[in-house]
Every structure is written in structure tokens, then in C-alpha cells.
Amino acid sequence: MLNKEIYLKEVAKSLALLSNEVTILNAINLYDINIAAEDFFPGLLNLIYGY
Fold this sequence. Notes:
The protein has about 50 residues and is mainly alpha-helical. The chain has helices at about 5-25, 30-50.
């Protein structure tokens, strides 16, 4: 198996896990993870897209 495929599968699993966790925590009115994501994801996307 190619390293790229392994990394892509790991990223996909991690994003799915994050999505489920956010959904569950939001359902019980816990929004801390949303605030953390608001700080984290813009930096990650800027790094990915070179902004």
C-alpha cells in the first residue's frame, strides 16, 4: 500500500471521528470543540492552500 493512501485514509478516519464528536457534543450543548476548531482550521487550510 502506498504511503499516500495510508495518510489519506488516516485523515479521512480522523475527520469522520471529529465530525461525530462535534455532533454529539453539540447535541448536549457543549460547544468548546467548535471554538477550538474555529482557531485551528483556518490556519490548517491556509497552510494547505499556501495563503
